Structures are given as C-alpha cells and as structure tokens.
C-alpha cells in the first residue's frame, strides 16, 4: 500500500490473521481485509513493534486502537456487502474505518475528539484511504445529512442505544454496538421495518466509554 509497508510487516500481519482465525473468525473477507491494512501505520511510533499483536493500544487523548480480534468480530457481525453505506461512531486511529473500506464499504466515520480527528484526517489520505469520509461531531447525533445507512458500527461503550442511530438505519439494516457501563455486551440490532427491531448478543468486551459533545 505504501513504501512504509514492508514484507516484514506483511509477514507479521499474516501471523496476526492466523491468530484471529484460530480465535474463531471464519469470514474470509474479513480476514483478508485485516491482512491488507497496515496497522503499524495507525499507531504511535513507540508502539510499532506491538502493532501486530492481538491487543488494544493507546493512540493519544486517552483513547485506544481496538484489538484486532474485536475489529474482526464487529466487522463480521456487520455482514458488509460491497457498496454498503456504513456509519462508524468513534473514528479513533481510523483502523476500523480502513478495514471497512477494504471490505468495499462507503465509510462515514464520526469522532468527538478534535485532536484525534485532525490526526486521522491527515493520516488516512497519506496511506491511501482517501475515500473514507471523516467528521468531527458527537456520534450520539449520528450523521443525519448522510442517513439512512445500511450498517452502523459503534466502537465505544454505551449503556443505551442512541435513538438517533436507530432512526438512521435503513429497514433491513444492521447496527453493531457494545452495550454496558463497566464491560460491554456486543449487541447486534436488525431493523426489520419502520417500527420493529430485533436484538442479538455476542459476548463480553471492553471499550472506552462513548461520551457526549465535542472535545477540543
Ligand atoms: N474505531 C477506533 C477505536 C476507537 S476507540 C479505531 O479503530 O482505532 C473509541 C473512540 O470513540 C475514541 O476515539 C473516542 O474519542 C470516540 N468517541 C467516544 N464518544 C464519542 C462520541 N460521542 N462521538 C464520536 N466519537 C466518540
């Protein structure tokens, strides 16, 4: 993808993909997408040697880049089809957004931390992800100007599903959201029609909290 992605990095990435596969991710399109995204470029240089461990890491402003396994779980649950309009809440490093882009989605991602937003808005085009659209805003509002979405992914933990997000889901659409305060239950919501939603759960995870408003 860029000159900063070497064969050594690709080798490490293949091992990471194997590790995630062994943990139970069977969707080969998701595994291939993770195999293509140069995760080391999304992390602060002091952590570069950690980039291909299956762990979450700090990315500044008290936030983290999600664990690759967690990214794989959320991406699998979204059942991305090429051309899907996908809204992500919590851009962070932009890694999850890049994985969604590699799956063929049109990605719209919202971040509330101005510094992180600026850092990622500079990085993504530099490493080839020009078409991922980033917004500074409060994800609790969703992105009304671009709604409705085929899929919505929330990458911060929250107790209750924001109703704005439910309303911005297309009928037949899916939302994947970690629900809970201390730890979060991965939850998938399907919008069956205008009025009805169906909910399924997929185990416990740990996310940074979804907060309100924009932070300078
Ligand atoms: N998807 C990210 C991981 C993000 S961690 C990645 O791949 O790196 C969660 C992110 O959600 C943090 O960057 C945090 O600032 C952001 N966040 C928390 N509350 C938010 C809100 N209300 N709106 C938008 N982003 C929010």
Write the layout of secondary structure elements.
Blueprint: H1 7-22, H2 28-36, E1 57-60, E2 63-65, H3 68-78, E3 85-89, H4 95-102, E4 106-111, H5 114-126, E5 133-136, E6 149-154, H6 163-167, E7 169-179, E8 184-191, E9 197-205
Parallel strand pairs: 3-4, 3-6, 4-5, 6-7
Antiparallel strand pairs: 1-2, 7-8, 8-9
Helix pairs in contact: 1-2
This protein binds S-adenosyl-L-homocysteine (SAH).
Residues 63-66, 89-90, 92-93, 95-96, 110-113, 116, 138-140, 155-156, 208, 210-211 line the site of S-adenosyl-L-homocysteine.
Describe the overall structure.
Helices cover 29% and strands 26% of the residues. The protein has 216 residues and is of the alpha/beta class. It has one domain (7-205): Vaccinia Virus protein VP39 (Rossmann fold, 3-Layer(aba) Sandwich). The strands form two sheets. The chain has a seven-stranded mixed beta sheet with strand order 5-4-3-6-7-8-9. α1 runs antiparallel to α2 (28-36). The chain is globular, with a radius of gyration of 16 Å. The mean pLDDT is 95. Bound molecules: S-adenosyl-L-homocysteine. S-adenosyl-L-homocysteine (SAH) is lined by residues 63-66, 89-90, 92-93, 95-96, 110-113, 116, 138-140, 155-156, 208, 210-211. S-adenosyl-L-homocysteine binds next to β2, α4 and β4.
Count of DSSP E strands? 9
CATH superfamily: Vaccinia Virus protein VP39
Overall geometry comes to globular
Report the order of strands and helices: HHEEHEHEHEEHEEE
Number of helical regions? 6
Q: Return the CATH class.
A: Alpha Beta
**CATH topology term:** Rossmann fold
Provide the list of bound ligands, each named once: S-adenosyl-L-homocysteine
Helical proportion?
A: 25-40%
Based on CA atoms alone, the radius of gyration comes out at: 16 Å
How far apart the termini lie comes to 32 Å
Mean pLDDT: 95
Instruction: Tell me the strand order in the biggest sheet.
Output: 5-4-3-6-7-8-9
- Tell me about the largest β-sheet: 7 strands, mixed
Return the domain count: 1
Q: Return the CATH architecture.
A: 3-Layer(aba) Sandwich
What class, by secondary structure content? alpha/beta
Assess the beta-strand content as a share of residues. 25-35%
